[in-house]
Specification:
CATH topology: Beta Polymerase, domain 2
CATH architecture: 2-Layer Sandwich
CATH class: Alpha Beta
Structural class: alpha+beta
Number of strands: 7
Largest sheet: 5 strands, mixed
Distance between the termini: 36 Å
Length: 139
């Protein structure tokens, strides 16, 4: 499966812009900083209600929040540690790339620093180098 096939799965959902954003590592994937594995998405409450009626499996995040599993996607309304992230804000400020809304890379950087796992720390370095090259952050 190519990157384009991967993101086509999101396009096939026909979700309206302003109602969802792609999070996790996918904002790195679209910029060529990482290989794809799955797609994490945050959606608005109304989209969550609509999608949850499709009968897709529901799992729970490490924080106890439900998310829907569909193909290579994990779709949640608030499963990235509530209280730390304002989902509406993440959606509203998303960067639209290739017609899809991606959570800002700066937010992904914050998220991966917060998680602090070994794989996240590798991603932190990649993101910081990318943003520095784009003159978007100072170390």
């Amino acid at each position: 499966m190519t990157k384009n096939d991967f993101f086509q799965q999101v396009r096939d959902l026909n979700l309206p812009l302003g109602k969802y954003a792609i999070f996790g590592s996918a904002p790195m994937v679209v910029r060529g900083l990482k290989e794809y594995r799955d797609i994490d998405m945050v959606v608005s409450e109304d989209i969550w209600e609509e999608l949850s009626k499709k009968g897709w499996p529901i799992k729970y995040s490490e924080f106890g929040n439900p998310f829907l599993c569909y193909k290579e996607m994990e779709i949640g309304k608030d499963f990235w540690q509530p209280g730390v992230w304002n989902m509406r804000e993440l959606i509203n400020e998303a960067d639209v790339i290739e017609g899809l809304p991606f959570v800002k890379l700066e937010r992904v950087l914050e998220y991966k620093k917060m998680l602090g796992r070994e794989k996240d720390l590798e991603d932190v370095k990649k993101i910081e180098n990318f943003l520095q090259a784009q003159n978007l952050i100072n170390k």
